[in-house]
Amino acid sequence: MHRWLVRLIDAQGRWARPLGDFNHRWLNALFRPIPAVRDLLNGRWLGHPLHSVLTDGPIGILFLVIILDVLDQRPAADIALVVGILAMLASAVTGATDYADTDGLARQRATVHSALMVVSLLVYVASLAVRLTGAGGGVEGVNGDDRAAAIWTSIIGFLVLIAGAWVGGNLVFALGNMVSRHAFRGSGTKWIALEPAELDEGGEIPEGRPVKAKLGLNALVLVRQGETVLALHDQCAHAGGPLSGGTLTDGCIVCPWHGSRYRLADGRVTRGPSVYDQPAYEVRRTDGGGWEARRRVD
Ligand code: FES
Fold first, then answer.
1. Would you state the pLDDT for residue 139?
2. 249/209 Cα distance (integer angstroms)
3. pLDDT tens across 57-98, in order?
4. How many A from CA of 178 to the centre of ligand 1?
5. Pocket around ligand 1: residues whose beta carbon is below 6 Å from it?
6. Which atom of ligand 1 lies closest to the CA of 259?
7. Does pLDDT of 136 surpass 70?
8. How far apart are CA 291 and CA 1, in angstroms?
9. Contact status, residue 233 vs residue 295, Cβ threshold 8 Å
10. Which atom belonging to ligand 1 lies closest to the Cα atom of 273?
């Protein structure tokens, strides 16, 4: 069944791709000038995406609305619906910051996910409006037909919400969006021969700029500062961008894809959208005049 669902999502590309590109532009124009707010909403301070924490709230609360409606607990159901709508809005804001830095298929599926969530939100708002402004006026005064319409709209809203949640789950678990690119990397600390991709005329690692290097199966980015060589894994923890193509600023390297910053000394993420630290490595000279490196332990 999931293969059919994935085909159905990807068949939405005709509208989801251009809409996703449009959303990408205005969301970036909105969030890029306020990096501190974006980091807060991405969840850098939390060490993983804030959106994944907040999404559980509306699903639970809006399921409770259905139960309260079935039990004919009208005021409680209506209050829960208001809280659920507010929780959806909070979740949407955090999701929008993650969405702003998606690419390719992830952006397309994220567009389908967000479109379903917006539809669900609108259906819930309609349900609330019917509850509050039914023929009798006021929560208690809504007549039977209006009450049935209010309940059915919230059930439809919940079904759309669950569909949107499924697409969001697919985005994370099947495509690895906002999952650390180093989640499965071994933490072995054996010294391994390091092979810089380029050397200067003196046979040294070029100074003051990022240089790619090979460390066994891994690619590193090196930055030489005098006798010290600082090294991080080359693949950005956010979405795999090549840090060796990035720029240096204030002791950090800036990813060329979405602008995440990592401290060269220890790999700490200092600016999102990445919410994960980058693996850092120690580098030393070998007796033969070459270099070797090993994973740095915190
Ligand atoms: S890949 Fe997104 S910031 Fe590096």
1. 47
2. 11
3. 999 999 999 999 999 999 999 999 999 999 999 999 999 999
4. 10
5. 101, 236, 238-241, 255, 257-260, 273-274
6. 3
7. no
8. 52
9. no
10. 3
Q: How far is the CA of 103 from the centre of ligand 1 (A)?
A: 10
Partnered with residue 79 across adjacent β-strands are none
What angle, 0 to 180 degrees and rounded to 10, lies between the N-to-C axes of helices 144-173 and 104-133? Answer: 160
CA 268 → CA 136, 169, 171, 253, 263, distances in Å?
59, 27, 26, 11, 5
The answer to whether 57 and 87 are in contact (CB under 8 A) is yes
240 Cα nearest atom in ligand 1: 1
**Hey, what are 46's tokens?**
């939390």
DSSP per position, 39-80: HHHHTTTTTS-HHHHHTHHHHHHHHHHHHHHHTT-HHHHHHH
Q: What is the pTM of this model?
A: 0.89
Q: Output phi, psi for 283, to 5 deg.
A: -125, 140
* Residues whose CB falls within 8 Å of the CB of residue 41, separated by 6 or more in sequence, listed in order: 31, 50, 93, 94, 96, 97
Q: Name every residue whose Cβ is closer than 8 Å to that of residue 288 and which is 6 or more positions away in sequence.
A: none
Site of tokens 């209010």: 150
Q: What is the pLDDT of residues 201-258, one digit of tens each?
A: 888 999 999 999 999 999 999 999 998 999 999 999 999 999 999 999 999 999 999 9
| Terminal-to-terminal C-alpha distance of the chain | 44
Q: Mapping DSSP to helix (H, G, I), strand (E, B) and coil, where does residue 21 land?
A: helix
Domains in the chain: ranges and CATH = 2-173 (no CATH), 192-295 (2.102.10.10)
